Amino acid sequence: MPEPKPIDLALQGGGAHGAFTWGVLDRLLADDRLRIEAISGTSAGAMNAVVLADGMNRGGREGARAALERFWRAVSRAAMASPIRRSPLDVLLGRWSLDASPGFLAFDWLTRAVSPYEFNPFDINPLRDLLVEQVDFDSVRCCTAVKLFIAATNVRSGQARVFRGPEVTADAVMASACLPFLYRAVEIDGEAYWDGGYMGNPVLFPLIDECAARDLVIVQINPIRREEVPRRAQDIQNRLNEITFNASLIRELRSLMLLQALVDEEGTNRSKSRDVLLHRIEGEDALRGLGVSSKLNAEWAFLRHLHGIGWARAEAWLEASYDRLGETSTFDPAALLA
To answer: Cα–Cα distance between 22 and 50 in angstroms, integer?
Structure first.
């Protein structure tokens, strides 16, 4: 049997929509023709990354798959006690959004009117407790099978901070997922951090500069393009979030395109940036109809729904692209960004 083809993964954040990425990872891990060399993750992407690394270190591919399912089941169980749930009308109509949920509406108003330093003075964060319960970070830091790059945004400098190897702690992951309207900034070594999505969602260049695999697969959650102009307040906020959290990815893709063009033009100093092969697994059409409020919907049925979409998209990508791995890109950012 031929050696597995090495790939690097870049995982976007997106709250509960990270279950789409869980489905993608589950399908890729089930294929022994592939070897995941490294993962760059932000927010929910960072959580998927550390859960995978912990499971991989303790039980190989199947251990990683089982760990991911346990994690998302735990997220769903924890959400059962939350007042932020779908309204009976949304359930009746089969809508996954929380737009009509009294709990969500009250929470949304609170986070717009009051700082987390005021409404949560003791910095209570059930998600952090769940993460520590589910992930052995000593195991994550000992994992040699997969390199990790976790992105957060330095509040003071406004620059991306990438946590690597022994720096990958629960605090680093929570910093990567720290939405400033919901949580207090995470302090690490005297520096304050917010969600990595503002400056790196996800970061690409560590995968290009520090890893050997030529094939870089972007797992994209946030739609880049929408045809309709939003008019409702919630739709406007949703689109602003998508633009904000895609901006850093678009910037890195443009920089990579420019670097490759310069190397091609000069014809000298062939670099890793010149050799990188880009691929993308996305659920834009399926996720485009889900409002921003659905990113807080952690019902098991919804998470399994997203997992199924992710699995199917990864399956379709493998069928269309596996033979081209190591040979050519299957994603042209120029076409996307035109």
So the answer is: 12
